[in-house]
Design goal:
The chain has 323 residues and is an alpha/beta fold. It is 41% helix and 16% strand. The chain has a domain of 215 residues: NAD(P)-binding Rossmann-like Domain (Rossmann fold, 3-Layer(aba) Sandwich).
């Protein structure tokens, strides 16, 4: 099979193209700088200079492929410049799906997220969960708009499957999860809020969920491909135990919530983590999802956090020379 992948230089996209090539699939990828993607070229990925924000730049790479994986996304919380949210998540998704439509691509998988539901307030939301209210971040809002857009294309007959990962971790992560883990290992993570929770999935499992969606997913359906629910505090306590370092103390989430309001007038002066938005997304909220449908219909089987997260901690310890 021949696939086109967006976001191939990212955390999830990079693992995806590697797995696709390992089993013999041809892969085309649009990248902003082919010169900086030599590692993918070495895997046999055919690189095309392009970007999701420029529809025509992807046309050649997407022509005559058997399937499209639209993984690319803008993921920043607390940043001052939020324009990338609409430009990449919404308009970029429209560009990819319009091209799929124009080129009669047989099937596509779009990477949405559990974040479209923002705070589920402890509920394990399934694919039919309908969020109402104000989203916690611009990332949440723009991904929710992109999810709606994908469903509109599906109603028009586009053969698309939607996948919704939760928090994704593992070797090669560049998110704040890894930053916090490194801080913990270096003794610089003094506290974390209680109750804040996510559904944690190892990157290999999240990518397997994408591949299963392409191979077995029913067009027009959404599949939650998250891992098990775990609070951030419990995850980093486990990390501390694995690394034999001091565990972070518990901070009442109400304190973070109050701070998110107090710092609002000073957002332009604060680092992203400590802006009102940055604090809001860790103030006792839960980004929880129910992966039962993906398990039942796709055979999705993510490893437990106790296994995958501990393995990731040991990987970072080795890089730091702690083993």
């Amino acid at each position: 099979m021949k696939y086109f992948v967006t976001g191939a230089t990212g955390f999830v996209g990079g693992v995806l193209v590697k797995k696709l090539r390992e089993v013999g699939h041809e892969v085309n990828a649009s990248v902003r700088s082919p010169e900086k993607a030599k590692d993918m070229q070495a895997l046999g990925v055919k690189l095309f200079k392009g970007d999701v924000t420029d529809k025509e730049s992807m046309r050649e790479a997407m022509t005559a492929v058997d399937g499209v994986y639209h993984v690319a996304g803008w993921y920043k919380v607390g940043t001052r410049d939020k324009s990338g949210g609409a430009r990449v998540n919404i308009n970029g998704t429209r560009n990819v799906l319009e091209l799929m439509q124009e080129l009669n691509i047989p099937k596509g998988v779009y990477t949405s997220t559990l974040a479209i539901d923002s705070d589920t307030k402890g509920v394990l939301a399934d694919e039919n969960y309908h969020f109402t209210g104000e989203h916690l971040s611009e990332y949440d809002r723009t991904k929710a708009e992109a999810h709606k857009l994908a469903n509109e294309f599906i109603k028009q007959g586009l053969p698309l499957v939607i996948v919704q990962p939760g928090l994704i971790y593992g070797p090669g992560d560049t998110s704040t999860v890894r930053v916090n883990l490194l801080d913990l290992l270096n003794g610089k993570l003094p506290m974390l809020p209680n109750q804040t929770g996510y559904c944690w999935a190892h990157v290999d499992d999240a990518v397997d969920g994408h591949i299963l969606a392409m191979e077995k997913g029913k067009t027009g359906e959404s599949y939650i491909i998250c891992g098990e629910p775990f609070t951030a505090l419990d995850a980093f306590t486990l990390a501390a135990k694995t690394a034999n370092v001091k565990a972070p103390m518990t901070a009442p989430y109400q304190m973070m919530k109050a701070l998110s309001v107090l710092v609002t007038p000073f957002d332009s002066l604060m680092p992203p983590t400590y802006t009102s938005e940055g604090l809001r997304v860790v103030s006792g909220v839960t980004y929880y999802g129910d992966n039962s449908k993906a398990k039942r219909e796709l055979g999705f089987n993510p490893r437990p956090v106790s296994e995958g997260w501990a393995e990731t901690v040991r990987h970072e310890m080795k890089l730091l020379g702690m083993q």
